[in-house]
Amino acid sequence: LGHTPARSRSLARPGSHAAPARRLRMAGAAMRALSEAETNTVDVPVLAMMVPYLLLNLGIGLWASRHTKTLKDFVLAGRTLPFFVTITSMFAMFFGAEATLGSSFNMAATGLSGDVMADPYGGALCLVLYGLFYAVPLYKTNNLTLSDFYCERYGSKMGVFSAIVNTIGYLLWTAGQIVGLGLITSRTWGVPSEVGSLICTAIIVIYTFRGGMYAVAWTECFESVVIIICLIVMAVEVGRTSGTGWSEAYTRFGEKMEPDPSNSSKVKAWLNLFAMWLYLGIGSIPSQDIYERMNSAAKSSYARWGAIIAGVVYILVSQIPMYFGLVARAKYNADNCNGDILGCEGVSIGDLDEGIILDTINFYTSDGVRVLFYCALISAIISTASGTLLGAGVLITINIVRPAMPNVDEAKILQISRFATLIFAVCAYCFTLGDESISDFVNISSVWLMVGLFWPLTFGLFWRGATEVGAGLSMFVGLVTYTTLFLVAQKDANGDGSGWQMYEIDTSLWALFIALVAFLFGSLMPQRWQDGINLAMEKLLGWMTIFQNREGQIIKVDQMETEATAKASASLTLGVAHA
């Protein structure tokens, strides 16, 4: 999967011009090696608190699952989420392993010019943009899934393809959360990371399997409050014991957002910084994860303002893990450079992994505060992972399985959705057995959605001239271009050796631009050409049930409400007649 662009350069001395570092293919392996070194020690205070805390989360999820009776309840919590729960659910969507461990480590390794541009700043941008432009129009479509919009706007083939792309992206995103769970449990439970992450994943699956969005949303509400309280207490404790104030942490290293000075062109450098902002900034907009949370709100106004407020809260709370990263950098430099907190030649915290953040926090905090920290971490990761598991299971069922089995009733679809969630969790867990880090998984999943689905969604909502051919070309060309450039950049002399840059420009920007051109070309080409392409695609794929016309088969939320009311009335009438 390669490595994040920020990882391609180290900070020999923060604030100085960074020289290219060795490629860090050992990042995931180092994480596991460090984790295994800790497995002989059980952190008794943390373990004593974390186990009942996980059981409490499970209990809340199972309690909320009592309301899950129908498919609408499972997917959208009955579209009844209050305003505050909508805010916390959208906040929790991003505030997972990447926002806590990932952003802390990235801040320590590469500062404000590195991967923190993707998350948390890109994540906050996504929530604000979604609230301003996408939430209300998508809410009013009354669809169960985002891929239903693609199906309705562009045809059944695009609906299926968008669901496949989204599911693959979810696989990587969920894997990143599971890696974070393994890292935490290996340092506190005295078990290998694979075992700890498996146990935590099983807990998430149980309440998601039972309660769907009801269980996810209400556990996220509880977890978000815990996260914010714990992180504030942590920041006070770390600042006191380390003697490092908030402003001092930034000013001592001269931190500021600026492009990579090693790039030969300032324009290219700024483009690459902008690209990192777009990874999550627009890459997560066409995702089922944010759609299901927005669409579960009781009102469209809740969906809009919930996303905007969540974005503001997200960027504010995310400053705390970033502060921890700067404290970790100072401590690591002092320990390895004879007390020089600014660092020295040949020493870079970027050569390590996210585990160094946990080690630093353990050093500076008391047992009580450390327990709070691990509760906040586990809350953040569980809340994010549960939503992605639900989103993937629903997409697989509604937009991939159901088109192939059009006569299946709603009760059967609900059952299939639950088992699809379970199967997806197993697949995501298997992905974590490789050597990738949290940031690798999260960034690649967002880029995958950005180059494949962003333009069809945006133009489909706001341009009447968007066509099926344009959407199909954009999806196909964007994904093929990105994959090809990513592989070529690892070998070609004009690449960066890691796959993230070609001709010193981020490969995702190349793919995003080419996907835009492909969309406009396909939508504006003469109609007879488009008819010919559609006919050829029909001959190629139309014989399969999954790609056949689904007109009238798309499940509408308001339609489900009408049917539920009709069934209740009929049942009441039958009861009166019987009486």
Sheet-strand content, in percent, reads under 5%
Given the structure, what is the number of helices?
A: 21
Shape: globular
Largest sheet: 2 strands, antiparallel
Would you count the extended β strands for me? 2
Order of strands, widest sheet: 1-2
Helicity, in percent? over 70%
Element-level helix/strand string: HHHHHHHHHHHHHHHHHHEEHHH
Contiguous low-pLDDT stretches (5 residues minimum) are 1-40, 564-574
Distance between the termini: 66 Å
Structural class: mainly alpha
Radius of gyration: 24 Å
What is the residue-averaged pLDDT?
81
Keywords, separated by commas or semicolons:
1% strand; globular; disordered N terminus; 73% helix; single chain; mainly alpha; two-stranded antiparallel ribbon; 579 residues; 21 helices; 2 strands
